[in-house]
Design brief:
The complex is a heterodimer. By secondary structure, chain A is of the alpha/beta class. In chain A, 40% of the residues lie in helices and 22% in strands. By secondary structure, chain B is α/β, with parallel strands linked by helices. Chain B has a five-stranded mixed beta sheet with strand order 3-2-1-4-5. A four-stranded mixed beta sheet of chain B has the order 8-7-6-9. In chain B, strand 7 and strand 8 form a beta hairpin. The chains are: A alpha/beta, B alpha/beta. Chains A and B meet through helix 5 of A and helix 3 and helix 5 of B.
Chain lengths: 258, 259
C-alpha cells in the first residue's frame, strides 16, 4: 500500500511517502514559498518524483501540523501529537519520551506503543524554541549550524541567565563585550535552551528512552547540552525532521493500533 | 548636605544631585554594556551640570537592575524603594506608582510616607516592557517616539496582535505588514496588547489613587492615554519622569546608613 503523510510547519513542510513497510521517499520544502492551495501539490509532486512514482499511485494521504492546505487526495487530518508518537515508535520503539523542537515551538510527549499519553507544549514563549538560538546566533554573528560546532569547542560555558529571548539578546551583547569566548557563550545559550526544555520532561515524569526530533535535533551541540542535563544519552533518528510526516503516512496505512 | 543618586537601567542610566531638598542637577545617558563606565559618565555629566566635583558629594546611593556595585557609591538600595520615595517627593499624596523601563515594569503601592507596602514586578519577560514597543517600532522602521501618536491615527481599525511573547509578536507584525495592514493600525494593535499586560500587572496589587507613572514610558502618549482611559484615572507625571528612581536614591543618601 502506498500512502503519504504531510507535516506542515510554520517554516518547513515535510512529506514522506511510504510503500508498505518502507520509506519510499521524503522531501522538505519551505512553507512560506507557496500559498496553501499549492503547497500540498508541490510537496506531493516532489516526493513522488524522488520515489519514482506518479502522484496518482498514492492511495491515501494524511496531513498534520498547520492543516489548512487543500489536497484533493486528503483522507484525514491528524493531530501532530499522534503523528509524532507513531513516527518515533516506528523508528525507535524503545522511546518513551519524545522531545520535538521547532523554530517556534517545543513539544514533549510521553508515549507508549506509538500512542501519546501525556503532552507538555510551549508555543507561546520564544524561549525553549529554535527562535532563541536564532536570536543568539545572530548576535554572535554566526549561523545556527556553526553554533553547534562552536559550542563543542567550549571548555567552560558562560551561563546565559535570562529566561526571556529578548533579554538574552541584551545579555549576550554584554557577554561579548566582556570578552567572553564565543565558544563559551554558544554553549551557554544551548544550555539555556536545554534548561527550558528539561522542566517539560520532568513535568511528564522522566522515563527512558528519550528521543529528540524536529529540525533542531540536527544540532549536535543541543543534543549534548540536553544529555548533560538529563544525565544520559538521547536518541536521535537519522532524519529527525520528518518524523511527524512519517507518522501521518503510517496512520494513513491504518496503523492506528498495534 | 549635597548628595547624589544613580539609577542604572537596562536602557538608560540617570543621576540626580540634590542639596537638602533642592534639585541641583540631573543627567540621563544611554546605558552601555559596561555599567561601571556608564555610571561614571552619568555622574560626571550631572556634576558638570551642577558645577561641582565628586569630592563635594557627601553620599551617593546607587539603584537599578544588575548586580554591579559602583565603587564610588556608598550604598545600594532597591529600585522599588527608590521609585516609591522619589515619586512621593514629587507627588506627596501618591499611593500607587507604575514604572516602566526598557526591560521591566513595576507597580508599587506606597503609604503616606512614601514607604513601600506592596509591589509586583515583571523583569523576566519582555512582553509589557519598553522592549516590546521598541522591537515593533524597529520592524516598522519608525522611531519609538513617533509611534504613540501614530497609534491613534487609525485607518481601518486596530490590527490585533494575538501573541503574548515579544518575539512571536514580531512575527505577527511581519505577517500583518505582508497582508497590507497600515502601520498605524498595527501600532494600535501593539499598544492595545501592551496595555493588557500592564493592566494585568496593576490588577495584581490593585490601584489606589493617586497614581503616578514614571520611567521612559511616561513620555509615551500611546501608553499613558490608553491606560488612563482603561483605569479611568488621570495619572500624575513628572516633567522628567525618567529620573524618579535616581531622585529617590538621592533622598535615601540623605539618611543614615540602613542595616
Amino acid at each position: 500500500m502506498i500512502t503519504a503523510g504531510i507535516d506542515v510547519g510554520t517554516e518547513a513542510t515535510k512529506i514522506v511517502i511510504l510503500r508498505d513497510n518502507n520509506i519510499a521517499s521524503w522531501h522538505v520544502l519551505n512553507t512560506g514559498d507557496e500559498d496553501a492551495a499549492r503547497l500540498g501539490d508541490k510537496a506531493l509532486h516532489e516526493a513522488a518524483v524522488k520515489a519514482n512514482l506518479s502522484p496518482a499511485e498514492i492511495e491515501r494521504l494524511a496531513v498534520t501540523g498547520l492543516c489548512d492546505i487543500q489536497m484533493p487526495l486528503l483522507h484525514e487530518q491528524v493531530p501532530e501529537t499522534k503523528c509524532i508518537a507513531m513516527g518515533v515508535n516506528w523508528l525507535l520503539p524503545s522511546t518513551r519520551i519524545v522531545v520535538d523542537l521547532g523554530v517556534w515551538k517545543s513539544l514533549v510527549l510521553k508515549c507508549q506503543n506509538g500512542i501519546p499519553t501525556k503532552i507538555a507544549r510551549n508555543d507561546k514563549c520564544a524561549s525553549g524554541t529554535g527562535k532563541y538560538l536564532d536570536v543568539v546566533a545572530r548576535i554572535i554573528g554566526i549561523g545556527i549550524e556553526e553554533m553547534a560546532d562552536l559550542s563543542l569547542r567550549s571548555e567552560k560555558y558562560v551561563a546565559v541567565e535570562s529566561t526571556c529571548t529578548v533579554f538574552a539578546e541584551s545579555e549576550v551583547i554584554s557577554l561579548l563585550h566582556m570578552q567572553h569566548r564565543r565558544e563559551d557563550i554558544a554553549k551557554g545559550a544551548l544550555m539555556g535552551l536545554a534548561k527550558r526544555i528539561h522542566p517539560l520532561i520532568l513535568e511528564l515524569g522522566m522515563e527512558r528512552d528519550v528521543t529528540l526530533v524536529g529540525g533542531l535535533a540536527h544540532n549536535k551541540g543541543l543534543v549534548i547540552a540536553i544529555e548533560e542535563l538529563l544525565g544520559h544519552n538521547l536518541l536521535v533518528p537519522p532524519e529527525p525532521q520528518i518524523v511527524g510526516a512519517l507518522g501521518a503516512a503510517l496512520i494513513s496505512q491504518g496503523r492506528a493500533n498495534f | 548636605m549635597i548628595v547624589a543618586g544613580i539609577d542604572i537601567g537596562s536602557s538608560s542610566t540617570k543621576a540626580v544631585i540634590i542639596a537638602d531638598d533642592k534639585l541641583l542637577a540631573w543627567s540621563i545617558i544611554s546605558s552601555k554594556p559596561d555599567s561601571f563606565e556608564t555610571a561614571r559618565e552619568v555622574m560626571e555629566l550631572a556634576l558638570k551640570n551642577a558645577g561641582l566635583c565628586l569630592e563635594q558629594i557627601e553620599r551617593i546611593v546607587s539603584t537599578g537592575y544588575g548586580r554591579i556595585n559602583i565603587p564610588f557609591a556608598h550604598e545600594k538600595i532597591t529600585e522599588i524603594s527608590c521609585h516609591a520615595l522619589g515619586s512621593h517627593k514629587l507627588f506627596p499624596h501618591v499611593r500607587t506608582i507604575l514604572d516602566m523601563g526598557g526591560q521591566d515594569c513595576k507597580v508599587i503601592r506606597c503609604n503616606e510616607h512614601g514607604k513601600v507596602v506592596n509591589f509586583v514586578m515583571n523583569d523576566k519577560c519582555a512582553a509589557g516592557t519598553g522592549r516590546y514597543l521598541e522591537r515593533i517600532a524597529n520592524i516598522l522602521a519608525l522611531p519609538l517616539e513617533k509611534t504613540g501618536d501614530l497609534s491613534f491615527q487609525i485607518i481601518e481599525g486596530p490590527a490585533p496582535i494575538n501573541s503574548y511573547c515579544a518575539v512571536f509578536a514580531e512575527r505577527d507584525v511581519q505577517l500583518l505588514v505582508r497582508q497590507g495592514k497600515h502601520r498605524n493600525d498595527i501600532l494600535a494593535g501593539a499598544y492595545q496588547s501592551i496595555i493588557e499586560r500592564i493592566y494585568s500587572l496593576c490588577a495584581r496589587v490593585g490601584i489606589q489613587e493617586p497614581l503616578s507613572i514614571s520611567g521612559g514610558i511616561a513620555k509615551n502618549s500611546g501608553v499613558v492615554k490608553r491606560l488612563e482611559n482603561k483605569l479611568r484615572i488621570k495619572a500624575c507625571i513628572a516633567d522628567e519622569p525618567q529620573i524618579v528612581g535616581a531622585l529617590g536614591a538621592a533622598l535615601f543618601a540623605k539618611t543614615p546608613p540602613r542595616h
